[in-house]
TrEMBL record:
<dbReference type="InterPro" id="IPR045061">
    <property type="entry name" value="FtsZ/CetZ"/>
</dbReference>
<dbReference type="GO" id="GO:0003924">
    <property type="term" value="F:GTPase activity"/>
</dbReference>
<keyword id="KW-0342">GTP-binding</keyword>
<protein>
    <submittedName>
        <fullName>Cell division GTPase FtsZ</fullName>
    </submittedName>
</protein>
<dbReference type="GO" id="GO:0005525">
    <property type="term" value="F:GTP binding"/>
</dbReference>
<keyword id="KW-0132">Cell division</keyword>
<feature type="domain" description="Tubulin/FtsZ GTPase">
    <location>
        <begin position="7"/>
        <end position="196"/>
    </location>
</feature>
<feature type="compositionally biased region" description="Acidic residues">
    <location>
        <begin position="392"/>
        <end position="405"/>
    </location>
</feature>
<dbReference type="InterPro" id="IPR003008">
    <property type="entry name" value="Tubulin_FtsZ_GTPase"/>
</dbReference>
<dbReference type="GO" id="GO:0051301">
    <property type="term" value="P:cell division"/>
</dbReference>
<dbReference type="Pfam" id="PF00091">
    <property type="entry name" value="Tubulin"/>
</dbReference>
<feature type="region of interest" description="Disordered">
    <location>
        <begin position="390"/>
        <end position="416"/>
    </location>
</feature>
<keyword id="KW-0131">Cell cycle</keyword>
<keyword id="KW-0547">Nucleotide-binding</keyword>
<dbReference type="InterPro" id="IPR036525">
    <property type="entry name" value="Tubulin/FtsZ_GTPase_sf"/>
</dbReference>
<dbReference type="GO" id="GO:0032153">
    <property type="term" value="C:cell division site"/>
</dbReference>
<dbReference type="GO" id="GO:0005737">
    <property type="term" value="C:cytoplasm"/>
</dbReference>
């Protein structure tokens, strides 16, 4: 990090914050990732494995910030030890990165801030606001997470609105959207952090100036404006062009333009003959638009620029984007009753209520059901015969008949099912037809034989 003005360390909280911190690591900064999900941690390539800290025992937080809070408070000592080991001697300033709306990042960002302060490091926060298209639960989590962050007062609080990134990169392929959006955040921060190391024989923005901006309470945002040169500009042209772009950017970010401190860093091509009047008009315009009582100036030349001028505008001590946050709050308040009623709605499971006779027993006796098991117990008729015999002949004959029926039932239990061939069935039918009616019911067999021939 020799070319960096300030030696930043980044702690990524949750999935989105971890990806931002991982991108900072690939830009040459020290970074740590803290997450409840081992899968999210495994996807990070820039952060060394020993500095990807898994907290808790779950496989994620399921968009529930309470799970994140429980996990970080259980493993706070483990996180503190890694921060102290990796950051304490080589990092000037720690920035905690979190995407508000999820479970882990929203739940642990404030605690990670406090842990970093406990180590003795200057600490701020980079947080994102979810897209308008994201779920209502994520919008609610974002508001609650912002309230919790406000309680611990991160200095500074760099608040990024993902909706603005969508307007800027939304026409790109989905695989490129988030990488390019994250690169816009990380790349701009890295560009500005290289300026304090640049040499200049004009206005210099040094490390102490940058530290003072970072230690200003309130919201913090860096802006980059690039204007093409055509060689026919007058002294006021640059200031007027800057005014239009600065006003548009402040309006997009829902800032009213009032801040405590501002840095205006102008970078021009080496061969561009800019006069003093033009530069002073640019600085004056920046201070008027932001109403900042303190203005840090920087004027540099860059051999890589040929036909454009770049203005880096760093605003510190801003109020939060209240209009954007209030719009989320209003939407949630309007839809809360509907959401609550939907959550409390019982699931319909009584699909059989309209079916009649659902519990009516089968009217056929078990012996007549085609799906019944073979009936090994005495029939009703057999039992009634036993009762009659007890009344007419006395107990002796009745006991003998009852014993005979029991032996018959036992024999039936031991006897297996027999599979008859068609010839055997036909022989039985013939025997039934010619047998004595007292022994067989010939009418039944005649009908059975007739039906069998029809089939």
């Amino acid at each position: 990090m020799q070319d960096k003005g300030i030696q930043f360390g980044f702690i990524g909280c949750g999935q989105g914050g971890g990806k931002i911190a991982d991108l900072f690591a690939r830009h040459g900064y020290k970074a740590i990732a803290v997450n409840t999900s081992p899968v999210d941690l495994a996807a990070l390539n820039g952060i060394p494995p020993e500095y990807r800290i898994r907290i808790g025992t779950r496989l994620g937080a399921g968009k529930d910030p309470r799970i994140g809070q429980e996990a970080i408070r259980t493993d706070a000592e483990k996180v503190q030890n890694v921060i102290e080991e990796y950051f304490y001697y080589e990092v000037d300033f720690v920035l905690v990165c979190a995407c508000l709306g999820g479970g882990t990042g929203t739940g642990i960002a404030a605690d990670v801030l406090e842990i970093s302060r406990r180590v003795g490091l200057s600490t701020g926060c980079l947080a994102t606001i979810p897209l308008l298209s994201e779920s209502l639960e994520e919008q609610k989590n974002a508001l609650k997470g912002f309230d919790i962050l406000s309680d611990v007062n991160p200095t500074p609080l760099y608040l990024v609105d993902n909706q603005l990134l969508r307007l800027r990169f939304g026409d790109q392929a989905i695989l490129n959207f988030w990488p390019n959006a994250n690169e816009a955040i990380v790349g701009l921060w890295d560009e500005i952090n290289q300026i304090p190391n640049r040499l200049s024989n004009m206005f210099v923005f040094d490390r102490e100036d940058y530290f003072r901006l970072l230690n200003t309470p309130g919201c913090f945002t860096p802006l980059r404006i690039e204007l093409k040169l055509d060689g026919e500009e007058g002294p006021e042209w640059l200031a007027n062009a800057m005014r239009e772009d600065v006003t548009a950017l402040l309006s997009e970010n829902n800032f009213e333009g009032e801040c405590s401190r501002v840095a205006a860093l102008l970078v021009c091509p080496e061969n561009y003959r800019i006069n003093a009047e033009t530069v002073e008009l640019v600085y004056q315009e920046c201070q008027n638009l932001t109403n900042a009582p303190t203005l840090f100036r920087g004027l540099y030349s860059d051999p890589n620029l040929t036909d454009s001028v770049v203005l880096y505008l760093i605003l510190a001590g801003l109020n939060p984007p209240n209009l954007r946050l209030q719009a989320i709050r209003n939407k949630l308040q309007e839809l809360s009753p509907e959401i609550i009623s939907r959550l409390n709605r019982p699931v319909t499971t009584n699909f059989g209520d309209e079916l009649q006779d659902w519990d009516t027993p089968n009217p056929l006796p078990a012996a007549r059901r085609s799906f019944a098991a073979p009936n090994s117990s005495p029939t009703v008729a057999q039992v009634s015969n036993v009762v009659k015999l007890e009344e007419e002949r006395g107990d002796t004959e009745a006991d003998a008949l009852e014993e005979s029926l029991s032996e018959t039932a036992a024999a039936q239990e031991k006897e297996d099912y027999k599979v008859l061939t068609m010839d055997q069935v036909m022989n039985l039918m013939e025997a039934g037809t010619t047998a004595d009616s007292t022994e067989y019911d010939s009418a039944f067999w005649d009908q059975f034989k007739l039906n069998n021939k029809k089939r």
